[in-house]
Amino acid sequence: MTAVRPAAVAGIFYPVDPQDLRGALAGHLASASASVGERPPKLLVAPHAGYVYSGDVAAMAYAPLARWRGRITRVVLLGPVHRVPVRGLAAPLVSAFETPLGRVALDLGALASLDNLRQVVWTDLPHAQEHSLEVQLPFLQTVLGDGFTLVPLAVGQASPIEVAEVLERLWGGDETLIVISSDLSHYLPYAEAQTSDRATVQRILHFATDLKGEEACGASPLNGALLVARRHALAPRLLGLRNSADAAGMTRSDRDRVVGYGAIAFDHVAGPVGDGDDGDALGHALVATARLTIARSLGLPAPLAGAMPDHPALRRPGSTFVTLHGTDGRLRGCVGRVEATRALGDDVRANARAAAFDDSRFEPLRAHEWPGLRVEVSLLDPAEPLSVRHEAEAVATLRPGVDGVIFEWRGARATLLPQAWQQLPNAAAFIAALKRKAGLAADFWSADVRLSRYRVRSFVDHDSRRIQA
After folding, report:
1. pLDDT tens-place string over residues 330-361
2. Was domain 279-380+461-466 assigned CATH 3.30.700.20?
């Protein structure tokens, strides 16, 4: 018999009767605009309160998904635990979750892929009464139908890196949607909550990974998701921001202690090698090319060092950076070019060899380091000059988490990829690090400094055994 996690908060957070529930969902979804792009969103942030309070905001995240019904076939759903403490991320042992609208099958294969991660614990207990995941399901069932499977994870005490590692395993392509369930501030007066939530949303839009529970109750899963979103150069969009006192029927007395709700989408950004490219296929080709180049140089046997992959974009001009991290997560090499002066395939091969063997900061890579080596290929957009007259203007212009930056002054030149924002908390620190990298003082500035910025698409593969000829 199939083990099922039954609905626990139907009749409390949303209607228990299927007909009433469908009516409530239809009303919420009808109130939301459904602006859609050329690809499905990769990541959504949606609230998890009772529908009477947060349903309209949640609908802002879910209404656009109706266009992608049949294309989105897996939903990775992360939310915070409210009742049962967890160290890490709790994966359920059941094979389906149930709501009044029916059952949603779990992707057991995807869950099994997490089995060797120490931060993942296997237990149904945190899921049994948890509402943060359950309240998302009727929305998903309505807009996606019954053609999707679910990967539900209840997140307790987990670092951004631990959550990010799980999400990288489950990242997939356009068929996979990641949903982070989180409300914002809790029980502040109306005006104070508005101020607090606007500040929190700005931090989310700038890929902060140090959110606190008082800013967003889903801070643990959200911090990890933002780390991965920044790594993959996703572009955030605020869809809606309200609080419980904004819901229909609320009175002035409801403004004394409100809860904040936000809906945010994170989209893929078109890359530099033609808008028509299949990003997933190209990303696999880039990472496989880098891996196989290194494997061959290390003298590793087939199939680890087989035939190079092919993709039409590899024969067109392009520029990349190849970044290597060891099993401990530490940087092991990073080399690239910001100008597209050679074919993309040639560029990634040259940068892979240089990152592995010629980065002056590290000893050449050795064969025993190959297992578990993480390879990241960043595909760069053409750089655009920034017209800034002084450093303060540059600080105000840069987009944290989004912009890679080139710094030039006479013979001094340096660049930092957008991934560097993970270690540099703000634009002033980012520019100071650029100047130090160029061999200049952190407080240096001159009227003839030139800055340019660019975006990247980032592709990562953690497991060297997955790349085959």
Report:
1. 899 999 999 888 899 999 999 999 999 999 99
2. yes
